Every structure is written in C-alpha cells, then in structure tokens.
Amino acid sequence: MVSVLRDPTYRRLLTAQVVALLGTGILTVGLGLLAYDLQPDSAATVVATALTIKMVVYVAGSPVMAALTIRLRPRLVLVAADLVRLAAAATLPLIDATWQAYALMGALQLASATFTPTFQALIPEVLPDEDDYTQALSLSRLAYDLEALVSPAVAGLLLLVVDVPLLFVATAVGFAASAVLVVTALPRTGRRAVATDQSFWRRTTSGLRLVGRDPALRGLLVVDAAIACATSFALVASTVVVHEQLGGGSVGLAVALGSFGLGSMGVALASPAIARRHDVRSIVLGGATAVPVALGAVALAVTAGTWLWVLTAWVLLGAATSAAITLSGRVVAAAVEPSARSAVFAARFSTSHAWFLLGYPLTGTLLALADPARTALTLAGLALVAAVAARRSWRVAVPTGA
Prior knowledge:
The chain is an all-alpha fold. It has 14 helices and no strands. It is globular and about 60 Å long.
C-alpha cells in the first residue's frame, strides 16, 4: 500500500482524513468530560443524547447536504465542512448549558455527514486505477480503526498537560489542519458537480433511488445490517462481558476492543492482495456470511468464560466486519456514473448509520433481557438473515474495473 502514497494529492487527502478523524475522537472524550462539568448527576444521559443526535443527523442530514451541495466543487464542500467543525469545536469550551452542547454537536456532526461522503466520492476520481483505489479503501479502513484505538490514548496524554477546554482547542486545530491539507491537495479550479434541474426532493432522494434500483447496491444495503449486528455487539456488549463475566476492568475492556480492531485492521491490510485473486462480490458477501459465524464463536467464547477464547472471538468478529465493509467503495464506483457517486455515497452513509441507530438500542435491550451469549446468538440469527438476503439480491459479480 506504499505505492498509492506516492500520489501527492491522495497523500494530502488521506492525511486530512486521518487528522480530522483524530480530532473527532479526541472531541468524543472531551464531550464526556464536558458533560460531567455541566451536569455531574446526569453526565451519562448528556453523552448518550449527544451521540443519539449524532446518529440522527448522520441518517437524516447526509442526503440533504448532498442535494444542497451538488453544484459545488468538492474542494469548497470539504473545506467548508472542516471550518464548520472547527468553529463548533472551538466554541464548545465557552458554553454553559447542555442545550448549547447539543446544538453545537448537531452542527459539527452535520458537517461530518457532509465531509465524509464527499471525500469518499472524490477518491475514485483522484485514483482511477483499480489497484490504487483498492489500496486507498484499505488505508481508509485502517484510519477508522486506528482512530478508535489511538484517539482515547492521545486525549489521555493531552489531559496530562492541558485542561479540558484546551482539548477542544486541539480538536479545532485538527480540523484547521484538515482544511489546509484539502486546499493544498485540490486545485482551485476543477470539475463542478453536474448541474441538475431536478427538484430538491428528487435530488435528496436520488442516491436512495439509485441504491434501490441496483442489485449490487441493494446487496450492500443489507450487508450493512450484518455489519451493524457485529459492531453493535462489540461496542455495547464488551463492557458487560469484560466486567461481569471475566472480572476485568478498564484495561481489559481496552484489550477486548483492541482485539476487535486488530482483526479489522488485519483484513484491511490484506484486502488489496485478496482483491487481486477474488472478485469484490465474493469478498464482501464472504465477510457478511462470516459475521454470523463469528457471532456464534463469540457466544461459545463467552460461555467458556476465558480471556483467550473471548479475545480470539473478538478478533474473528473484527475480521469478518472488515471483510464486509472495506471494499464496498469499489462496488459503488462500479455501479454508478461519477456524477452520481456523491449522492450514492451520501445515501449509504445515511442507511448504514440507520442500521446502527437500530443496532445499538437493540443490543442494549437484548443484554437487559438475556446474557451476552444469548444476545450474540440472536444477533447472529439476524446477521444470517441479512447475509442470505444480500446474496439473493446481489447475484452477479462486480464487473472488472470495480
């Protein structure tokens, strides 16, 4: 994957993505501390509400912003999104009421829901070569996994030398750096998004309609449900498994989540080599099929109640999830014209988070009614239904060049 980094435009864009992701991760840590300062007796409720706002904004806001920005150059959209995130992060230390925190988080997440699909749609144009784009998707998956692992550690180190308000300043600096990198990576002039005479409503729903018409994209839509089952269990149930069944603490929880991330990163690193030997459909659907198997392994490991089995199962769960999601961008790039990519990536950003909006509370409810092993088996059953439905919808391989 080193070769793709020789492209200066992509290298700057990837760095912008990594810096922005790191800033977002640090902000999440800071939000918890800010919530405690604002309402010490209900800090968990404040954080949960802010995260719910994030998911709702992701689901509802991404298609709307794609429709609003369709005539704008990607460079302008990306920089404007970074500047909005910068302003929101820099303002958070100045607030003194929870409603203000909710409003700023909503604005920040709306900017993220604009930035990410625009960035995703831009990369296949920057890297038209199939192998280069595959490497870029692999690196993007690594960036997301590393953000989840590294951001809390970086935030912790910063808190050793700065106060909480300066944590938000560090986040703002990250968004500023991302904007500068985008400006230096992309030319001032360039191809505008294709103009359209469609109504605002049709522009907003165009990505969803394209997803519904294409068998491969419909397959991805259902694959995302399986991914949500796996990720929801890993993020929601790990605390219960580690603390209540294994007798571990915060370090044990970090190790468990790190094992999930390790499995994901391992498959992401191997994806370019795998994609040279197998078509994308086989890889993505294979990952979706592996998710219920991995959740079954999780149920067995939790029942066994040993660290070795649990950590191994978490690695398998992360690997299956990564196999299902890493190369999905190639499916979109092959399925639609370049002018429609932004709308489709925005639609997928929305629908994938809709599955998480269902998956997180469902997992929490199942854990309240049953033990983690039964919860994992229930989610495995749902993921199996999703995997079968994806195969039935997506019956043909992605064409060469995807």
